[in-house]
Amino acid sequence: MFNHDSAPSPGFPASSVGRLVIKIGSALLVDPDGAIRIDWLRGVIEDIAQRHAAGQQIIVVSSGAIALGARRLSLPKGGRGSLDDAQAAAAVGQIALSHHWAGLLKDQGITAGQMLLTLDDLEHRRRYLNAAATLERLMALRVVPVINENDSVATTEIRFGDNDRLAARIAQAAKADAVALLSDVDGLYTANPHSNPDAKLVRDVRKIDAHITDMADGGSGSGMGSGGMASKIAAAKIATSAGAHLAILSGLPERPLSAWENGANGTIFHAQPSKGARQNWLAGRLTSKGRIMVDAGAENALRDGRSLLPAGVTQVEGRFVRGDVVDIIGTDGRLIARGLIEYDAEETTLIAGKRKSDIAELLGQPVRPALIHRNHMVLL
Ligand code: GLU
After folding, report:
1. Which residues constitute the domain of residue 22?
2. CA 323 from chain center: how many Å?
3. Distance CA 104, CA 117 (A)
4. Domain finish residue from 250, 280, 310
5. Which among 44, 147, 216, 364 would be 20 to 30 A from 266, CA to CA?
6. Residue 96: which of 81, 114, 110, 78 has the closest Cα?
7. What spacing in Å lies between the alpha carbon of 67 and ligand 1's midpoint?
8. 264 and 307, same domain (yes or no)
């Protein structure tokens, strides 16, 4: 499903891509002793300005707040020693980061906007739609939004933790055509290129299967950000299933987007046909409230595009209420679908495995057409 070292895929993320999300990792923006790499940032912004002038709509997702703040506060471990340190570092670093972005974009005649989001903001449908509407308005006003996770309030349980997946979720919310992840690696390799001289660059990925996910070894190479290849592949899944291409490319050159367009290394994960807005939002969610195990019959029915009925449920886990998002797990233990459930956890447990005729009696109320309706479900 991929080509090794073939010719680079032309044209992406060239100016022809209408709406582009550019994610910039901490290791590019902040040098190892915690100072901002201002000349490099100026170069990236020249790239952005060129595209902006050509009519491309650009959204920036910028890391670096924790790394920058840690230096100003003289915190150990780059501010990542504890959650309290990371939150304080982010508060101090974010204001400096925004200052640099706003100033350098202004030098190019571009107005910057700032959005700080938590995972929760994008997991709740109404807040997600709200963020999407704000992005749409900013695009119409020709503003370049600079987005980061709101690390000062996000706790470990409700964090993205890495801006790769945040960028992919933003691409989905903004209906972007493509995402460019600029990092200190120049793409996905068949093995870790630092330790294995035979590792080959994978230029094109058309389907993210187990073969591809196995290539990611996890962990951030620089130790400064929290990304690593595993989070980049998770981001690629979210973006491509929402109909956006995603590229991993090196941010090390002075003008990284120009370098990429001129043939520098990179990996493109190609967009899949988009499933529709609600389905994309469901597929890209990172959290769910429960797990519904189903039998082989139900699994086949779901794959045929049918709704999930209580009869096919073998086990129910989690605390959820009607309308919550739950994962549907197949007989081999793998996640097969995700959807909005029609019943609370207690009711679901009660009616699991039961036929329609028994359910009305068990619940003492009219039976809903499905446990999870196919229109509120996405196959994964
Ligand atoms: N949001 C974090 C920061 O601004 C970076 C997360 C990441 O490493 O991707 O420092």
Report:
1. 2-280
2. 23
3. 22
4. 280
5. 147
6. 114
7. 8
8. no
What is the reported pTM? 0.81
357 Cα: distance to centroid of ligand 1 (angstroms): 53
CATH number at residue 305: 2.30.130.10
**How confident is the model over 72-87, as pLDDT tens digits?**
999 999 899 999 999 9
Are both 274 and 292 inside the same structural domain?
no
- Same domain for 230 and 304, yes or no, is no
Q: What is the pLDDT of residue 284?
A: 81
* 34 in contact with ligand 1, CB cutoff 6 A: no
Q: For residues 250 and 364, state if they share a domain.
A: no
User: Both tokens of residue 133?
Assistant: 């509407």
Beta-strand ranges (E) seen in 71-193 are 112-117, 144-149, 178-183, 188-189
Which residue among 225, 260, 280 closes a domain? Answer: 280
How does pLDDT run across 150-185, given as a tens digit for each residue?
999 887 766 787 899 999 999 999 999 999 999 888
Determine if ligand 1 sits within 6 Å of the CB of residue 228.
no
User: How many domains is the chain built from?
Assistant: 2
Ligand 1 pocket residue status of 64, Cβ below 6 Å? yes
| 42 token code pair | 């100026």
DSSP 154: -
